[in-house]
Amino acid sequence: MTSAPIRTCVGCGGKAAQAGLVRLVAAGSRVVIDRARSGGRGAWLHPTVPCLERAVKRRAFGRALRSEGVQADAIALRGELTGNPRKD
Ligand SMILES: [Zn+2]
Q1: pLDDT tens column, 23-32
Q2: Domain spanning 6-82: which superfamily?
Q3: 4, 23, 30, 40: least surrounded by Cβ within 10 Å?
Q4: C-alpha of residue 53 to centroid of ligand 1, in Å
Q5: How far is Cα 64 from Cα 87, in angstroms, rounded to an integer?
Q6: Ligand 1 mean position to 59 CA, how many Å?
């Protein structure tokens, strides 16, 4: 196994190995981190605050997930991505 799958970050548009990104999926009308690798359409993102904020601003999740109505809760996702609870 020498070739890791490469994915595109929906925040910055950069490419990275799948292992370095987190996968997000639509759960109803929300965007959640897909820790179970549940299959279906997913969006890949660097687990960093700048990439998350760019993706939210650009509404990149709706496009990537082909689900225009989904809402990304930036604060909740940020907490999950960084491992810190909500703090502002
Ligand atoms: Zn990125």
Answers
A1: 999 998 999 9
A2: YlxR-like (3.30.1230.10)
A3: 40
A4: 10
A5: 28
A6: 14
